[in-house]
Amino acid sequence: MFQTLMVVQRAILSHISPVTLAIDLVYVNKIPFLTTISRNIGWHTIAPVPNQQKVTILKELNCLITIYRNRGLPVNSIHGDNEFACLRDDIGSIHLDIAAPNTHVLEIERSNQIIKEHS
Q1: For residues 84 and 54, what is the distance between their CA atoms, to the nearest angstrom?
Q2: pTM value?
Q3: Is residue 80 in some structural domain?
Q4: CATH number of the domain residue 109 falls in
Q5: What is residue 5's DSSP assignment?
Q6: Mean pLDDT on 23-30
Q7: How many domains does the chain have?
Q8: What is the pLDDT of residues 43-62, one digit of tens each?
Q9: Strands 95-98 and 44-48
């Protein structure tokens, strides 16, 4: 479950809204984590997930989207690997951009490499 103390000042909101997320799964010691980066804010999140099932990933992603929305930052676009294509019909009006097969979303892949190097 994502937890945050993110506070956004109103003056900043007009410059960074809406939010585009890059998402991926990273494995540390064989434990899966959902990782995200907001492209226009640079906020990184990581949450352990018990499995990679659609229901589990969707629950964590919806929790994160709610955190952004409650702070006045609507998520309008999500970029991820092909493993997230199954979420397309379940994320409402948010645009889901899936990378081509055998390609990745670069900024989240770099972030995952850093996580692995420091674990």
Answers
A1: 8
A2: 0.81
A3: yes
A4: 3.30.420.10
A5: -
A6: 91
A7: 1
A8: 899 999 999 999 999 999 99
A9: unpaired
